[in-house]
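Recap from last week: sequence in, structure out.
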Amino acid sequence: MSDTFVAEAKRQGADRREPNRQTATQQGSPRQEAARQESREAQAMTPRVDVLEDATGITLLADMPGVSKDSLEIKVESDALLIEGTVSAATPQAMEATYAEVRVARYRRSFTLGRELDAGRIDAQLKDGVLKLRIPKHEQAQPRRISVKVS
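Predicted structure tokens:
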């Protein structure tokens, strides 16, 4: 084991015993702290997605375990579909974590929608951590069967 690794492990152990103590490497200017906070907020996990297509549209299945309906946001801007969700941390009422090693996870994924898809009629369902989006095609983009008359 390297000396650097051992020193880092000891420092982390000391931080666990004294959660309010900050080491010299953790302290910084307000600008550095704001940059760290912004960096943490910008980090997001990419949910795994299956895209299934049929003649009438596409179905998108996104794995987003731990995301509730209230913390899920789906936006469509011009031809871009954005899915964002935050995993809710389970803490008892009237209690606040003084020290926590588990961070609240965020999911974020974006897609470009084709012109044949009707973004105004998207149907969204969330069940058991799986988001199901149904995006139908415009009527004129769907295949039609033309009947032939015998004369």
